[in-house]
Amino acid sequence: MPPLPLSLAAHRLMASLRPLHLGRPFRPSSLSYTLATRFPLVKRNSSSIPPRPSSTPPLPPPPPPLPPQKMTKTQFLRKLFIVSLQNLALSLTPRGFRAAFRDSPVGMTFTSIVLGFAAIVCTFAIYEYRRVFYRADLNIYPKEVADLLRRAIHHTIINPKPELALRYYNEAMVKCSELGFDSSSDQMLYIRVQVASWLEHNINNYRKAAEVLELIKADCVKFVSVINRAIQEGKVDDEGMYRPDVAEGEAGGTPKVTPPESETIWRKRQRLLSLAVGVSAKLGELYADEHVLDFDNSQASLIWAVETSLAELQRRQKEGGRRPGEEEWLEPEKLGVLMESLGRSYEEKGQYELCIPLFLYALRLCMDPCQRAVIMNNMAVAFAQQSQVPTGVQAATVVEAAAAMPTTREGNLEAAHNWATNAQKHGGEVKGEARTVVCDRACAAALCTLGDVAVMMGKPELARARFREGREMSLKLDFDQGVRQAEEGLARLKSKSSEA
Questions:
Q1: Domain boundaries, the chain
Q2: What is the rounded distance in angstroms from the CA atom of residue 2 to the CA atom of residue 141?
Q3: What is the pLDDT of residues 365-388, one digit of tens each?
Q4: Residues 183, 202: Cα–Cα separation, whole Å
């Protein structure tokens, strides 16, 4: 009869009946300890007894390590760049900053300062780059023309090469013509004005710059005269556009490139006339420069600018309103600047009876308090230098002001003293952000003018005091012209006292 299978309970019972020494080590007896020490057993793995053969074969030795793969220069640089970026990103974390500051506080502080300074320099460089090469006046051109102008500016400012700059300016004008821009458009005229500015400031060829500006002025005047003739002949409708029966390009060459917003004939006339007036004023300044000293052409240019501006104002007042597309004519301040420039031109040529009315007109239009003090001082100088019996020639713009002018030498000196005192007073009253270095220099110049007037009045002590005050103030302001004028006045007083 076969044995019956044991149940789980039987297995547990039999396991509990096993000797306890089979499951854990036991302490040997003294007899077994003595036998073991006298007759030691031989190790199974000794050389006398061969080892039992293993059932599993031994593992093969590991293969030798592969040699490192050689990297190309490009791969090395790429890996170096990636690792550098990773290290930089790790160091820019708050944890990286704290660890670096703990390791080297002084070095980390110095590094932070250098990085901050480098960030400021880079930001300023990017701003200047955008300001110079991507300014708003280049946005009126297509990309190919704007790129040529940027190259010209690069060879003007960054890497000065006059030949390349002039070549790129010429290529830009040729490209504008190929794209269909008219010679009276802002795009073409701006390039020509830019060339004149380049000749003046970068090449220092003032006469050549004046020639370019004269050509621009002549072209603008020609375009305006053609438009005026078309208006008189009735070729312009009430909306300020050419009538359909007028041939294209008949009235001064209408632009072949249509602007986004259609420009009326009146708007085009005002744009060209404003540019002609501005160029003429610039010519007056350029001819009076110390490198040219052509006062006749300077005065003629300023007279044309003032007369043209006043004639346009009278036309608008007579017609009683603006025409389609017309905007406000010259701002009062700009007209005042023209008057002041023409007045200084008359003053330099000794025609004081003509410059005084212009200074009065400019003073009435000027809104800058510091510039008003300058004009008042110019008035004082003009009255002080005016001859005792003025000529009958007066400025046609302000005849009513000429009637109130003094007619004697004493009256002129009294007027000069009053205007110089007003210049010093008004220049000193300007406070806050409105006060600039112009106010301070106007006050210093007024003190010197008061000294000159006191000399003419026969008051040497008062003149000496004013000259000293003007010299001290000019020295504080680094105003060389004021220092020179005060020292010349003191030298004249010293020579007169020694002669007496």
A1: 99-133, 359-500
A2: 112
A3: 888 889 999 999 999 999 988 844
A4: 25
